[in-house]
Amino acid sequence: MSLESLGWQGLVVLVVFGISLLIATYCTYAERVIAAFLQDRVGPDRAGPWGLAQPLADAVKLFTKEEFFPSGANKALFIFGPCLAMITALMSSAVIPFGSFLKFGETVVHLQGIEINVGMLYVFGIVSLGVYGIMIGGWASNNKFSLLGAIRAASQSISYELAMGLSLIAVLMMSGSLSLRDITLQQSVPGEWHFWNIVKQPLGFLIFIVCAFAETNRTPFDLPECETELVGGYHTEYSSMKMGLYLFAEYVNVFVASAVMSVIYFGGFNFPFQYELREWLSASRGFSADAAQNVVAILGVVAVFAKIFSFIFFFMWVRWTLPRFRYDQLMRLGWTILIPLAIFNILLTGGLITAGVIPEIKQWW
Predict the structure, then answer these.
(1) Domain assignment of residue 48, yes or no
(2) Per-residue pLDDT for 364 more than 60?
(3) CA-CA distance, 155 to 164, in Å (whole number)?
């Protein structure tokens, strides 16, 4: 790879990190607006027009609040916990393909931070590390409620990662690749825009989205920070921006989970009739091949973010609709329902592939 290409990809990585932070910041605003809409009340409307400056006001508040360290806490780990949670959340977005590529003469810019052939495994591994930030923060706080929240987070993460990993094995069996870009391209067969994995893996998607709620500690699986039982859970003793890092990390994880579901099951940056549009721009509108590709690539970015925002809305809708599980119900769902269903889905996928019902992957790209 040339130095110019490395420079462009470095810029893409910075843009991806910036977008992740911006979306996480305004997810706090969206959460309040959606909650107000569902509860038929007025949401944030004081800071800026329509309350759009509310996230900035919240950030100023968190940065200017007093730093607090509980007595008996391990100060180094108390600071390291929220930092680790935020770093791992941001790292997982680096391998997600947010678009195909832009072409400027001889320069090709892939709209993905880093392309590695084990991208799915990378995301799964980094997400698994995120629970260490919660465990370290809960233990270092020297508070029984924080420790209980950290233990809950660890056991919940272990339980639901198994079902999530098994649901992804079925996708791997069909795609033959762990690369998120390859999986996306396999869903973009010309003339077959309905070739998305959600059509071939509806049960796998259902298992994955339930596990995504548990992995991001969102309602109805927010037992690690259950206010009615544990005050605030693992971040009970946190204040100022250290607590802000935990809150932002949760929203970044929601964004990443939504992006992964969009890429693996809903075609990622693919959209209906994209190849027909590119040919029409070249043949009827006088666009050059590079210009037509760039237009389609930009529309692909719009398509993938539309899918991501739809999932983020679903996360928030569920939070303000469903009640919280009891902890025994949460563990029973993971071990006795989701894991057996995921194993059944693997066997079913293998049988369908062997019988030729699921066609072979078209390596046309």
Answers:
(1) no
(2) no
(3) 14
Structure token pair of residue 3: 């130095």
Whether 191 is in a domain gets the answer yes
Q: Model confidence over 95-105: pLDDT tens digits? A: 999 988 888 87
What is the distance between the alpha carbons of residues 327 and 264, in angstroms, rounded to a whole number?
Answer: 30
Could you give the C-alpha distances from 293 to 262, 268, 285, 286, in angstroms and in order? 21, 17, 13, 13
CA 45 – CA 81 distance, rounded (Å): 33
CB 305 within 8 A of CB 20: no
Of the given ranges (49-58, 116-125, 228-237), which has the lowest mean pLDDT?
228-237
- Rounded to 10 deg, the angle between the 119-140 and 144-175 helix axes is 180
Cβ-in-10-Å burial (0-12, 13-18, 19+) of 103 comes to middle
Tokens of 343: 């194993």
Q: How far apart are CA 125 and CA 120, in angstroms?
A: 9
Number of helical H runs and strand E runs in the chain: 14, 2
Q: How many residues does the chain have?
A: 365
Segment holding 85, helix H or strand E: helix 75-91
CA angle 249, 197, 128 (to 5 degrees): 30
Name the β-bridge partners of 78: none
287: buried, middle or exposed (CB in 10 Å: 19+, 13-18, 0-12)?
middle
pLDDT tens, residue by residue, 131-164? 888 889 888 888 888 888 888 888 888 889 999 9
What is each CA distance from 118 to 88, 92, 125, in whole angstroms?
17, 12, 10
Residue type, 208: F
The number of distinct structural domains making up the chain is 1
Is 341 inside any structural domain? yes
Distance CA 133, CA 4 (A): 36
Is 20 within the bounds of a domain?
A: no
Residue 132: which domain range? 64-100+114-355
| Contact of 219 with 322, CB cutoff 8 Å | yes
